[in-house]
Amino acid sequence: MSGTKRSTVKKASAKKPAAKKPAAKKPAAKKPAAKKPAAKKPSSESASELIDAKLAALGDWRGETLSRLRALIKEAAPNVVEELKWRGTPVWSHNGLICTGETYRDKVKTTFAKGAALKDPSGLFNSSLEGNVRRAIDFFEGVKVDEKAFKALIRAAIELNESK
Which residue ranges does the record annotate as region Disordered (predicted)? Predict the structure, then answer.
C-alpha cells in the first residue's frame, strides 16, 4: 500500500429510516346518549273533544254509528271514562276497560275486553268468538243497533270489572 492515508468517510446508514409509528389512538369519544322522545305535551283538547273530532272527520255512516254507540255507552254508564288510545281508538273504561270503538272501511267494531266472560242472551257478539277473553260486535252499514241489548252488555261489563 502506498503511504497515503485513506480517509474514511462515514457512510450514511443504508437502512431505511424507521417508519413513523401511528399516534396512539385516543379512546373513542362517548356517543351522546340517545335522546328520549319528548314527553307528549298535554293536549288542550280533552279525550271527549278528540273523539268528537274523529267522529266528525269520518263524515259517513261509520261516524254516525260510532257516535250512536258512544251515546248508548254514556246512557248505560254515566260515569264512564273516555280515552283515545292505540292510534286514536276510542276506549271506554269504568273500573277497568269496558270496550273499544274501532272503525274500518266496511264496519264499526266494538270490542269488549272481557267479552268472553259476559252473558249475551241477545246474541250481539258476532266477531272474535274464538278467543278466551275478548268478544266483539261488528256493525255494518244499514244495520240497526239493538240498543237495549247493547246497553245491557255495557252494564254487565261494568259489573264484571267491579267484581274483580
Answer: 1-46
Give the CATH number, domain containing residue 109.
3.90.1150.200
List the strands of the sheet with 97-103, edge to edge: 81-85, 89-93, 97-103, 108-112, 135-139
CA neighbor of 66 nearest in space, from 99, 113, 93: 99
Residue 90 lies in domain: 47-163
Cα–Cα distance between 137 and 74 in angstroms, integer? 18
In a domain, 35, yes or no: no
| Inside any domain, residue 15 | no
CA 86, 88, 92, 94 torsion: positive or negative?
positive
Report residue 96 as a C-alpha cell: 277497568
Task: Tell me the angle at which helices 47-58 and 61-76 cross, rounded to the nearest 10 degrees.
Answer: 150
pLDDT per residue rounded down to tens, the chain (164 residues): 555 555 555 555 555 556 666 566 665 655 555 554 444 444 556 877 778 777 777 888 999 999 999 999 999 999 999 998 888 899 999 999 999 999 999 999 999 999 999 999 999 999 999 989 999 999 999 999 999 999 999 999 999 999 97
